[in-house]
Design goal:
With about 160 residues, the protein is mainly alpha-helical. About 70% of the residues lie in helices and about 0% in strands.
């Protein structure tokens, strides 16, 4: 008895070429560029604010505090607008939300400011700054979301 002959021959697995996997960057490249460009813009704005309003050694870091509070307020309003009102382009959120506002708000500098205050003998100021930033940033997001939704509801009724 003979076995039927086939024109296709199965190669052993070690001789087959590996299947090509799609690149991680395929489809992600535009978002990475959007976040990078937005981040550069936001970080530059934050740096500009620190040059305009420098913080004195041992003093309450008002510039970083207000940058973070304003950034949190803007992100709250922005998220309401792009999720409830405007069908934004797919790169708007990475560019503005993650990039510009992520680069503008600076929670890493917030942590460094706290450490500097402690290291220079101002632990009470550090603790006040830690708590005030947390409370103010969360309140800013809540206030922005609430205000944006109320304005939208008011505009719909008109």
């Amino acid at each position: 008895m003979t076995t039927p002959h086939s024109d296709t021959v199965d190669e052993p697995a070690e001789l087959r070429a590996p299947a090509r996997r799609p690149s991680v960057w395929r489809g992600q490249g535009a978002a990475v560029v959007a976040v990078s460009v937005g981040g550069a813009i936001g970080a530059s704005a934050r740096y500009g604010a620190s040059l305009l309003w420098p913080t004195h050694t041992g003093g309450f870091p008002l510039t970083t505090f207000w940058v973070n509070v304003v950034g949190c307020f803007v992100i709250g309003a922005f998220m309401v607008v792009i999720t409830e009102v405007w069908a934004a382009h797919r790169l708007v959120r990475p560019f503005f939300g993650t990039g510009v506002l992520g680069g503008f708000t600076t929670f890493s500098t917030y942590a460094v400011d706290i450490q500097r205050l402690v290291d220079t003998g101002h632990p009470r100021t550090a603790l006040a700054y830690l708590a005030a930033t947390l409370v103010a940033a969360l309140a800013a997001v809540w206030l922005a979301v609430t205000a944006a939704r109320r304005v939208l509801a008011w505009r719909r009724r008109r």
